[in-house]
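Final report, section 2: Outcomes. Of the targets proposed, DUF4097 domain-containing protein is the one most frequently requested by collaborating groups, and we therefore present its record in full.
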Amino acid sequence: MSLDNFIKELNIELGVLSEQQRAESIEDFKSQIEKAKALGDSEEDLLKVLDDPKKVAEKYIRDIVVEEDAKKEEEIPEVPEDTIQAVTKDFASIVSKHDIKNLSISGTSVDVKVEAGHKLGFKFISYSHKGDLSYQINDNKLTLLHTGQKKNVRVHTIFDYMKKRKQMRNDELTITWPKELDALKINLSHGKISLSAINVRLLNVHSSEGLIEIDNIKGQDATIKSAMGRLISKSSQFKDLYMKTEMGKVILEDVKSESYYLISELGSVNLSGLTADSNIKAVSKMGAVNVKYKKEPTNTKVIAKANVGKVRNDLSKNSTVDSRYKAEFKSEMGSVKISLI
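The predicted structure is given below as tokens.
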């Protein structure tokens, strides 16, 4: 690939920006290239460093789309509470003036990611240019409202698909949150939900069509539901955990809780590293239930049932001194397997 071709591909990858923003980004890139050449870098050296036009484009997009503008913080007008406003580039500065304890997000075709960070940040990208993001602040609650839909794109060949694939993507909302939340609620019609390394007392997330993945989350009560997506939780800790999906898998790895209620209508339930002594109800109507304990329960009655499939319970002979807890694993049409790691 030559630098000219690299710039052409970069221009395509920057298609989510406005024409002016895209032109300014390309001019800035060309200027950087000329400076590098003046310092003795060859075209071959530059192409090795640049690697991929998509990665370069993502950097420009990240710097342009909805970010905190600290230089203009003093110029930001006060926004009346309880009114719906459009999200602008000064949004992070506006939100930072409020002691937000409750965050609520609702949307249509949008992928939502909330992750911990030292600095409050928001990034919204609409690949179809049809998505809008607005907000409302009421006392200590921030509500984000996404509206829009995927662009109806006709694809005739594989090359046509490669060219138009970005236009077919969901919008993307990424939030960096620096402090603990009292409540986080996310409700999507279609889209992926990803949560990472945040502390939240009450967690309630739902996507009608989309994967939900949480990692390193600490909280009290968590309700996680999807009609047509997988539910994945890793390295997290709750007091009570409820997870239900109609057509996807339920996957837990090293998730600690006093009480688990886990249901998959059509998919499997795969559990590893749960709290040994705890109340558990894990049910799959059409799939298998696989459980791996790191430590054998001592105060829990373990029950394994399968109406049609096979049952293997390596803990069937364990003697409990005090059965204060009950762990019930059941499959109506699949197998059930319980073992020690």
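Residues 13 and 252 are 36 Å apart (CA to CA).
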